[in-house]
Amino acid sequence: MIFVTGGAGFIGSNFVLDWLSQSSEQVLNLDKLTYAGNLQNLASLDGNSSHIFTCGDIGDSALVSSLLREHQPRAVLNFAAESHVDRSIDGPEDFVQTNIVGTFRLLEEVRSYWNQLEGSPKQDFRFLHISTDEVYGSLSKDDPAFMETHRYEPNSPYSASKAASDHMVRAYHQTYGLPVLTTNCSNNYGPYHFPEKLIPLTIVNALASKLLPVYGDGQQVRDWLYVNDHCSAIRRVLEAGKTGEVYNVGGWNEKTNLIIVHSVCALLNELQPRADGKDYNEQITYVKDRLGHDRRYAIDASKIERELGWKPAETFETGIRKTVEWYLCNLDWVAHVQSGAYRDWVQNHYAGNAQ
Ligand code: NAD
Ligand code: DAU
Questions:
Q1: Active-site positions?
Q2: How many domains does the chain have?
Q3: Which atom of ligand 2 is the closest one to the Cα of 199?
Q4: pLDDT tens profile 167-189
Q5: Separation CA 262–CA 164 (nearest Å)
């Protein structure tokens, strides 16, 4: 069995669904079900005994210890995190608690569990930490893309907390010999993406005839990867990655935010035209920039391609079409996740932000 944390969130739930679609190996899923965690993402697994869900915190040492001892997983994959940069700017506390303290406590329990294993279960055990390209900071227009050796220069409370967790993971390998692997991935998009992030927010706002907020000049660059490609990279790293190593994951898909919003609008114009026949682009509005906004991220994925033979299956064009189609077919999921708490946060965040 594998033990996944944060498996009810965007990437975690895609990973669990993907894993169980091609493996009979059980998944133990520990998720705190914060605003970003949603069991509806996993509804298709109802009644499937290969998926064992527990609601709880990675920082709850007693719970993690008892889960490890009861289920004896061969690997722990740590997806659990507070993940939204804007929320980390509004209130960093939860980011410190989950991303730093939570990861530390999880590592401690995993170390204790791993220490009492023997023989091949000990040798083959893996702790795979899912991290982000944001730990490397921001690139200028002509800088080469981030390699694994790029220095850490996190700029937001979110990326600083992820950087701290990456360092703890590394330290547990160097100091205690824990067999760890770390992946640093670029921006994901796809099904079950919470509509506080740029792509799903643009889709749901467009369909609800709301404004499409673009921060600053919209020329910031992100490197986009379809979520299933991230899942296949994680599977590959778990299977063949060298312990103690870091693998950057990305799809060589750098795009400005404005191009992303225009692409979504173009697909919606085609698939679900506005009742008044106008272009969804007319809903774009420029709003106040994010504090400390990183200008450009770009991932050099040559190490994982060369050493592990991984390649993304989707281009941006195929992935974004699948994504928009998924949202159009799953408006009930959108309505479900737009709870009162979500609405309050979005309203506060964008209030008075017009440029
Ligand atoms: P998400 O916010 O959608 O999901 C996070 C999940 O973790 C939620 O289900 C939440 O309930 C759970 N969680 C939060 N705190 C917890 C705690 N203390 N204990 C247990 N569960 C907890 O995030 P995501 O976008 O799916 O990101 C998953 C991981 O991938 C994160 O570690 C993130 O840093 C990393 N990552 C994300 C992206 C991206 O583009 N979304 C890119 C690279 C890396
Ligand atoms: O790079 C990987 C990271 O990608 C992950 O580690 C994070 O967990 C994930 O949230 C994502 O971070 P970003 O800040 O890049 O994603 P977000 O969707 O919030 O924003 C993408 C870009 O779009 C960013 O430059 C800010 C901009 N933006 C975002 C929102 C929500 C807007 O212009 N308007 C918006 O309303």
A1: 133-134, 158
A2: 1
A3: 18
A4: 999 999 999 999 999 999 999 99
A5: 35
